[in-house]
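Hi R.,

Here's the chain you asked about this morning:
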Amino acid sequence: MQKIIFYLFITFCSLSYAQETGTIKGKILDGELFNEPLLMAAVSLKNTEQATHTNFNGNFEFEDITPGSYQIVVQFLGYEAIELPVNIKAGE
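And the predicted structure, written out as tokens:
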């Protein structure tokens, strides 16, 4: 009986400390060419393994990001890479 109570206690504690995550959404546009969307631009979070590409409308999204400060890196062939700071808050 004590083992069951111990396991229930551990399970409850781990669930109560679960950390909420956030989402990053954005759109990459070409500022020099009439704000046309840049399709298939590489977008990543610096110093993480999170990476994606923009869709045909220039949109990208990162889900389930741990809250904190990050640098978004945008790369596209023929353009200079850009780093943008972003702060993620839980549930936002």
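Residues 2-16 form the longest helix (15 residues).

Let me know if you need anything else.
M.
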